[in-house]
């Protein structure tokens, strides 16, 4: 799909503080950006606070570099009784380039929780 037609759930710039000793962006930093992006959709659908309970099928396709603009796109996979599964793709645009490239993707599962952090039912009208 042409990314210019999609609105990212989250967009950020990879900074020097996000690197490993070799100067590449930590995979964990990228994973955390994806988790934030997915939680936006999950919380909207669950109409409750959500907690991340699983990451499935995580694939890193290309590295992310300092200065890259990183955009995370989300798509609903499934809504269960208490959980929401979201497919998340991260795309990077290099500093001096116009086109984006897919750098990673994965499925994240979130559970709706109450103020006591106990799982709660997701309203049936959430889709």
Topology:
Layout: E1 10-13, H1 27-46, E2 49-60, E3 69-79, E4 83-93, E5 100-113
Oligomer: single chain
Question: What topology, given as strand order, has the largest sheet?
Answer: 1-3-4-5-2
The low-confidence parts are: none
Gross geometry = elongated
User: How confident overall, as mean pLDDT?
Assistant: 93
Radius of gyration: 15 Å
> So, CATH architecture?
Roll
Query: Total strand count, please?
Result: 5
Query: How is the biggest beta sheet arranged?
Result: 5 strands, antiparallel
CATH H level, superfamily name: Hotdog Thioesterase
SSE string, helices as H and strands as E: EHEEEE
Description:
It is a single chain. This protein has 127 residues and is α+β, with helices and mostly antiparallel strands. It has one domain: Thiol Ester Dehydrase, Chain A, CATH 3.10.129.10. Helices cover 16% and strands 41% of the residues. The protein is built from 1 helix and 5 strands. The chain has one helix at 27-46, and strands spanning 10-13, 49-60, 69-79, 83-93, 100-113. The chain has a 5-stranded antiparallel sheet, covered by helices on one side. The longest helix has 20 residues, at 27-46. It starts with 9 loop residues before the first strand and ends in a 14-residue tail after the last strand. The relative contact order is 0.25. The mean pLDDT is 93.
Summarize the structure.
The chain has one helix spanning 27-46, and strands at 10-13, 49-60, 69-79, 83-93, 100-113. With 127 residues, the protein is α+β, with helices and mostly antiparallel strands. It has a 5-stranded antiparallel β-sheet with strand order 1-3-4-5-2, with helices on one face.
